[in-house]
# Entry
Amino acid sequence: MSDKSDAGGDADPFASFAPEAVAAAFASFPKKSDNPRLFQARLTLWSDLIISTARSRRLGPNTLVISTQGISEKFKRKNGAVPLGMGIVISELIESRTLLSLSDFHASLSTDPWTLSAIATLPIRYSFHLLTRTLFAVSPVDFVVTPLLDEACAAVLDAFQPTASTQPLDGLLGFDELCGEAGVRIKSIALSRADLALVVKKLRKSGKVALTMDPNGNVELVRFPDAPGTAPAPLTAADAGTVAVRRTISALAAQVAELEAREEALHGDVVRALSGGFRTRAARFLKQKKQVQAVLARRAKSLLTLETVHDRIRAAHADVRVVDSYAAGRDALKAVLKDERLQVDRVDEVVEGLREAMADYKEVEDALAGAGELGMDDEDVEKELEKLVEMEEREELKVRENASHVAHEVSGASMDALIGALEGMEVATEAPSNAPKAKDSKEPVLVE
# Structure
């Protein structure tokens, strides 16, 4: 029976393993040169386990970043067993770039030539650790799990990709807004604020989003493309102002909701105080209610004003898009009209030639229609047709007369022959009942 729980009490990644499989996984790693197949199988097992455990945030507070410090203890069993080859596993994952140190990830976002050359020498800089296998005893480091980072980037792009119905400013988000929206839109992978910061920084490197950051490197604004197949527009001070307006609207909306709840609660206090006969207390609650109502009215008015401003900003962006479309259409039309085939003289020449061609075709068509008649008059055709009909009728009458005459002759000859045969026959009028019958008689015997 397998051990189904780990030291932390979370879901056990080895729950489906047989006891002997768990023991083999926790045993010392074989030498790569002695048994390459077993080494690779053990490495694949632990690589998959580390990635799946990181995805469920059992290796730290984030999904995309894990710490090497005490990582073996994260897989400790209740019987005290810890994986003996974790240093080898992590070193191999670093060499394959499955794990990338957080500092090297941030360096990879830079376009500085020295930084890029430093990144290219990562395998060399880790060679000592790969040989000694003491990486984590010497220098615990935070690492980015690159397969999970790639998956998170794809999920974010899919969740925030523009569509045909995308409105202006839909792709413009403050980082707080992005974190809130990502929690709602992305279900395939859980991402913390730190995870999302890594994601959008990598997406900016590939040109998929635009960012602004404060001097400490914290993400402030994020812009996704406004239309499918386009690049994100650069962020401006006006965009920062728009996000600030939207942030204030959210704060005011929360305050208005809180004040409305407070007003309702005070109204209940007034009613209960009056019902209990506590007029002084009711008056105090009523004064508080009046004060809350005054603040609520001011906040509601400010909220309405800011919402109107934001709506007009959005409408202005839509107008800009329309004007840009007008300009693009104007430029396209001008470019087409510059074609020499659309010059006025050229068009007149083509139209005149077309008219001449149509006139020539009409003459040919009329000639072909006249040739089909072959000079024959319709009256002559009718007379010839009547003659043919009369001849056909005479032939049919003659055939019927001949057939009637032949049938009459055949009928008369047949009747004469039948009468002659009957007259040659003798008919016995009386026949004795005891008269013997001749067996071989050739005379016909008539039976009355």
Summary: Residues 256 and 299 are 6 Å apart (CA to CA). The chain is about 65% helix and 5% strand.
